[in-house]
Amino acid sequence: MRKIFIAIVLITLLSGVLAVAEDFLQVDKTKYTNLPGFLGYKSNEFIVVLKDNVAVDHASDMAYQVALNHMPEFAGLARQFGVKKLRPQFIGSDRNARAATPAGRAMARHYKVQISQGDIDDAVTAYSKLPSVERVEKIGIHTLYATPNDTYYDDPPPEYPHDQWHYWDTYGISANTAWDSEAGDQTVLVGDLDIGTKYDHGDLGGSNPPGPNDAGTNGNIWVNTNEVPGNGVDDDGNGYVDDIIGWDFVDRTDWYSYPCIDNDCGGADNDPSDGDGHGTHTAGTIA
Question: Residue 160 falls within a domain, yes or no?
Fold first, then answer.
């Protein structure tokens, strides 16, 4: 079988990343079945947004762990709730700076407060009543689950009896836990040495798939921008003419009596299409 694989190997490059199957978050998702993604609020921190007419000075505020104490109402609440920190949330966005943009001035009004005593809801209510405060925002805690919403993933329709167990099951690659930490990087290229790829599949080539003579795409299939499609010239000088999306290295109809299952057996060319399905399967896992 290894000889078959080597004999009919095709190369298609895809942009994407093969996530390492390792659970980085160590989070038990079953605890939050009714609240997917949302775990609650931080118990001792919240955001205070000052009104636009309140002058702030980040250079001065950053010199203290508890800023704004020059304002009596803030000093009083700092004592009441044992404030440990009250500092600008977005450092460097001082609204009084000469070059500050409107967005920077808006960001400069955000301060993060950390309390050490009292109830978080009581503190939020108290700060929201200050005349210099526009609003107070609690800080939500969310998990980063990236499980696909693809119906074929773990609950396929009756006409398609096989779910995509190879991603998540006992003998799969645990991609579901890896996706929680890394969902891909379009700058990474992965070479897939297999029996070809169905590059016009929607999950690979997108709604505008590329082809041997078409470099336009909005999908995950890598396109060789150093080649001019269909001009019959080896523009990038790598020895392969018009290798826009890869190369088909199959140049014979059989290999030691094993039949060729390539779509166009007998000649190497610039069309790395899939004649069996396995290459599309592995390309989909990578993408």
Answer: no
> pTM value?
0.48
Q: Looking at the structure, tell me whether residues 76 and 110 fall in a common domain.
A: yes
Q: Is the dihedral of CA 99, 101, 104, 106 positive or negative?
A: positive
Q: Are residues 200 and 287 in the same domain?
A: yes
> What residues contact 42, with CB distance under 8 A and at least 6 apart?
120, 138, 139, 140, 141
Cα–Cα distance, 272 to 243 (Å, whole number): 9
Does 111 reside within a domain? yes
Q: Identify whether residues 256 and 203 lie together within a single domain.
A: yes
**Sheet order of strands, 189-194 included:** 189-194, 10-15, 246-248
| Residue-wise pLDDT tens digits, 113-163 | 999 999 999 999 999 999 999 999 999 887 666 677 677 777 777 777 666
**Ordered strands of the 110-114 beta sheet:** 85-88, 110-114, 38-50, 133-142
The identity of residue 265, as a single letter, is C
Number of domains into which the chain is organized: 2
Burial of 84 (0-12, 13-18, 19+ CB in 10 A): middle
Give residue-wise pLDDT tens across range 221-249.
888 889 999 899 998 898 889 998 888 88
In CATH, what number is assigned to the domain containing residue 87?
3.30.70
Query: What is the domain extent for residue 55?
Result: 38-142
| 3-state SS, residue 76 | helix
